């Protein structure tokens, strides 16, 4: 039984929630913190966004930016102990954050499912893959053994596994990484969910297999009209596949825009730096990779002002004192959190301060601003 | 500043490159076909168990069968004293000989095995039912329940088992039922600790979270996801514990604290074989039960070990 808001409909009529108006997923001011011995880690700090039916949202950020915690927090998968969560998540008009586990189980798998990062650990090693698919079919769709088995074969065929009639009897260890990730996708899509969370679905895979898996996911998404949230650290992965992109830094959204806008009119220096750090085939051989200097901030004591300011080549005094709000200029669907957003790739900051500059990215942007490159200095030391 | 188009293009060019390279991703089928053969090879390359394993299985099988069918088999009454055949060596009438009271040693050995086997297997069953269930739940749930059960298991473990058993048997009386119950209770914390540790390690794995996101209940996760993974280590550890309990029962019997004479058990047979200087006059009395116990323990341990190795191969491939 559902407990609070939404009443009994939370559990009962989920299947016909298709009549719901508005965005499929609405996340409002979601905060997620962990109590640790050193203090409270604010892994997700006031995140709001929406996902429309059938669309793809890319969530991008470096390690420790809170993207995985965000996806698990939305799902309600974090252990209740030592985790503080506030804010709301509405899925198809139902408030997930107000549901207990019993009601969530009706949603999980059937309406909202998840593809995990590592197919090596996300499949049960001692169960046949067919059985792993059949379980949720029996659970949510009430299929009998035979029906579930033939549906499992069809699902395996649809994710491109050859001779699925034999494969349903195989164990995960008999499959390669790419095949296992295909099985993971088949399991996640078994009950035709309306939203799939893909948490770094290709990180554990070979580059050649990565593209295949992402294409497969995109095809299935189109066929089934699902919404997908693609969480990744690789802008290249979402560039051609997401409708909208959210860039996260230190638990907050720093820029959010439709994909094309984000790449053509980048406002936030952090997004720019992420793009610069992708190696390009066109670069001459031996070209240095533009890594972002410094490390992601400590989420127990985040820096005051803009959280990226210690690593930002354009940071001003204002950046270090006041936290920039998520705002728009011009286009209403392009949000960013920066006092001095980039315009045509150039910073609107008054001047480049010498003291905080670091790394080749800073040096290069200094050159582009018509100034002599500042002596490279590790950011961490400069700040400490 | 790099061109934005270039960035978008980079990604598609990477994909183009991927698709163009022959042998890498020409077609999905090609890749999957090669994967198929390697996977099939893995399945076929299971190592055979070997002669010793099957010998051990046969030995345990013979001991189990003879213990179960002891009443049906053409054996003499283990307590019948044949005064015309005292302290004889192996012969056609008495395959393993007789003891100093003229009792048939083969018959006593077979009937004696019942005590050892019942104590060993039933004791472990008690440990598995209570300790195993508690361990599975405790490892999966964690939290206060886990802390409490864990502390409780340490309290039981901290008490020297053999001393406790001797004390309880002294007060309660030594019967097969009592010995089995007491040793079973002593096994509970051992089983609890091993299964809890295993359950705990699997409860953290992604497939448990994955099962949860597919809408599985806690009960279902414990029974369908964690239990099958815990079984290999449980089987191995249970077999070793069976062997351990047989030794403890033997020790108690040797000290005269197990099943009362004249009911034979391997432990009190060994005791009889060493009493009254029998070791030098009639070593067979002690030899047979000692040999049987040695071979049984060796077989059980070997079976457990080989099974563990077989399970490990699957883990290794992951």
Describe this structure in words.
The complex is a heterodimer of chains A (384) and B (318). Chain A is α/β, with parallel strands linked by helices and 384 residues long. Chain A has helices at residues 9-12, 67-75, 101-107, 119-122, 129-141, 145-158, 164-167, 177-189, 207-224, 235-239, 259-264, 269-276, 317-321, 359-368, 379-383; strands spanning 25-35, 40-51, 56-60, 83-91, 94-95, 112-115, 195-199, 227-232, 244-249, 252-258, 327-328, 335-336, 342-343, 346-347. Chain A is globular. Chain A starts with 8 loop residues before the first helix and ends with a helix. In chain B, 75% of the residues lie in helices and 0% in strands. Chain B contains 12 helices and no strands. Chain B is elongated, with a radius of gyration of 28 Å. Chains A and B meet through helix 3, strand 6, helix 4, helix 5 and helix 8 of A and helix 1, helix 2, helix 8, helix 9 and helix 12 of B.
Q: What characterizes the major β-sheet of chain A?
A: 8 strands, mixed
Envelope shape of chain A: globular
Seen as an oligomer or otherwise, the chain set is heterodimer
According to DSSP, the number of beta strands of chain A is 14
* Beta-strand content of chain A: 15-25%
Low-confidence blocks of residues of chain A: 1-17, 353-384
Q: Which fold name is given in CATH as the topology of the domain at 109-317 in chain B?
A: MetI-like fold
Write a concise keyword list for the protein shown above.
heterodimer, A: 384 residues, alpha/beta, eight-stranded mixed beta sheet, 15 helices, globular, disordered C terminus, B: 318 residues, mainly alpha, MetI-like fold, 12 helices, disordered N terminus
Quick summary:
Chain A has helices at 9-12, 67-75, 101-107, 119-122, 129-141, 145-158, 164-167, 177-189, 207-224, 235-239, 259-264, 269-276, 317-321, 359-368, 379-383; strands spanning 25-35, 40-51, 56-60, 83-91, 94-95, 112-115, 195-199, 227-232, 244-249, 252-258, 327-328, 335-336, 342-343, 346-347. With 384 residues, chain A is of the alpha/beta class. Chain B is mainly alpha-helical.
């Amino acid at each position: 039984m559902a407990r609070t808001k939404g009443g009994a409909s939370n559990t009962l009529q989920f299947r016909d929630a298709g009549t719901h108006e508005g965005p499929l997923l609405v996340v409002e001011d979601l905060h997620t913190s962990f109590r640790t011995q050193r203090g409270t880690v604010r892994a997700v700090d006031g995140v709001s966004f929406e996902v429309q039916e059938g669309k793809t949202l890319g969530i991008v950020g470096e390690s420790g930016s809170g993207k995985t915690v965000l996806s698990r927090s939305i799902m309600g998968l974090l252990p209740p102990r030592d985790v503080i969560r506030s804010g709301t998540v509405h899925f198809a008009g139902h408030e997930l954050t107000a549901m207990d586990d019993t009601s969530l189980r009706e949603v999980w798998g059937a309406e909202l499912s998840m593809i995990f990062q590592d197919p090596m650990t996300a499949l049960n090693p001692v169960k046949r893959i067919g059985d792993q698919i059949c379980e949720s079919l029996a659970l949510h769709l009430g299929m009998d053994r035979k029906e579930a088995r033939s549906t499992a074969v069809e699902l395996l065929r649809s994710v491109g596994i050859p001779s699925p009639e034999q494969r349903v009897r195989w164990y995960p260890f008999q499959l390669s990484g790419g095949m296992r990730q295909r099985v993971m996708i088949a399991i996640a899509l078994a009950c035709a969910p309306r939203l799939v969370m893909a948490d770094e679905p290709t990180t554990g895979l070979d580059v050649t297999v990565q593209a295949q898996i992402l294409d497969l996911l995109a095809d299935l998404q189109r066929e089934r009209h699902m919404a997908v949230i693609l969480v990744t650290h690789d802008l290249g992965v979402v560039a051609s596949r997401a409708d909208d992109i959210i860039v996260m830094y230190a638990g907050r959204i720093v820029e959010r825009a439709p994909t094309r806008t984000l790449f053509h009119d980048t406002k936030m220096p952090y997004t720019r730096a992420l793009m610069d750090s992708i190696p390009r085939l066109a670069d001459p051989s031996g070209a240095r990779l533009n890594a972002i200097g410094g490390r992601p901030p400590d989420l127990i004591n985040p820096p005051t002002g803009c959280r990226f300011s210690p690593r930002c080549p354009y940071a001003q005094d204002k950046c270090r004192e006041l936290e920039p709000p998520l705002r728009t200029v011009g286009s209403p669907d392009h949000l960013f959190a920066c006092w001095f957003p980039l315009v045509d790739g150039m910073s609107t900051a008054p001047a480049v301060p010498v003291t905080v500059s670091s790394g080749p990215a800073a040096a290069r942007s200094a050159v582009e601003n018509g100034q002599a490159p500042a002596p490279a200095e590790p950011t961490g030391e400069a700040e400490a | 500043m790099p061109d934005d188009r270039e960035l978008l293009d980079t990604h598609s060019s990477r994909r183009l490159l991927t698709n163009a390279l022959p042998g890498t991703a020409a077609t999905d089928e090609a890749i999957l076909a090669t994967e198929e053969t390697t996977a099939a090879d893995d399945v076929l390359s299971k190592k055979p168990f070997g002669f010793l394993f099957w010998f051990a299985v046969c030995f345990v099988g013979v001991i189990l069968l003879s213990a179960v069918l002891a009443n049906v088999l053409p054996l003499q009454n283990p307590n019948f004293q044949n005064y015309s055949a005292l302290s004889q060596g192996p012969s056609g009438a008495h395959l393993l000989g007789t003891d100093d009271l003229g009792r048939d040693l083969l018959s006593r050995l077979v009937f004696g095995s019942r005590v050892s086997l019942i104590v060993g297997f039933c004791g472990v069953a008690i440990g598995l039912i209570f300790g195993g269930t508690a361990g599975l739940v405790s490892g999966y749930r964690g939290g206060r329940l886990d802390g409490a059960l864990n502390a409780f298991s340490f309290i039981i473990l901290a008490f020297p088992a053999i001393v406790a058993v001797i004390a309880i048997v002294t007060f309660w009386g030594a019967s097969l039922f009592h010995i089995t119950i007491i040793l079973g209770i002593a096994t509970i914390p051992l089983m609890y600790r091993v299964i809890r540790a295993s359950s705990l390690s699997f409860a953290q794995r992604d497939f448990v979270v994955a099962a949860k996101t597919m809408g599985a209940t806690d009960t279902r996760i414990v029974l369908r996801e964690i239990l099958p993974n815990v079984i290999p280590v449980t089987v191995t550890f249970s077999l070793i514990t069976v062997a351990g309990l047989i030794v403890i029962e033997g020790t108690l019997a040797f000290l005269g604290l197990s099943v009362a004479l004249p009911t034979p058990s391997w432990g009190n047979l060994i005791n009889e074989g060493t009493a009254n200087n029998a070791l030098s006059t009639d070593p067979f009395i002690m030899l047979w039960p000692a040999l049987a116990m040695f071979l049984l323990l060796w077989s059980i341990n070997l079976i457990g070990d080989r099974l563990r190795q077989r399970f490990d191969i699957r883990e290794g491939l992951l």
